Fold this protein.
Amino acid sequence: MRRGWRLGTAAVLVLGGSIFAVSAEQSDGTDLRAGRLTDLASVVTAERERTNRLTARAAELNVEVEELSSGLADRSVQRVRTEIEHLLDPAGLTPQTGPAVRVTLTDAPEDAATSSGVEPRDLVVHQQDIQAVANAMWSAGARAVTIQGQRLVSTTGIKCEGSIVTLQGVPYAPPYVIVGIGDDLNAIHAALDTDEAIAAYRDDAAAPGGGVGWLVEDLDEETAPAYDGLIDVSWATPIAG
């Protein structure tokens, strides 16, 4: 048994010596692993440099994206602002000044009903009379129209309640003054003269014994203030069932 161990140990030592001898001969006195370690270090260094370059480039691109995004946002905001400024005027949200035509509508005198024999309803100014004058001015190219000094816009509501006219929730008594500011006063006059709805009112105004009042005047310069009321639109919805 002991002799077997001795023989095995001797064989291992001989084999190990043979391996060392072959390695020494192949390496010629140099480290066989040195080249591999050097190559790995070079790869790591190259990859680190490449990563640094890519990181720097990514940072540059991020800055460029932020600058482009900022410029795009600025252009978008400016475009919206330009559109808003363009719409403020036709929406009635800026003052308008210029030559104008002023129309004054008044109820007939209190004694006109007994002296003229006409229907009482034909002796007072109605909502549709005021609207007809305003619409005629718009159709003639008026840049701004006011009623009782209030600027008319697309959401303006005119409501007749007895002898009182309510404009945008504010009640007014006659006389009712409608002013149309425009560059062509002749066109406004022509529209007032030819409008069929106004013609009926003018016939009542010309009734014998005194009828409703109708007065048209030219103004060298008038200012329509900007509309300062609510601009939100609401509407009714039908009840289900």
Observations:
- The radius of gyration is 48 Å.
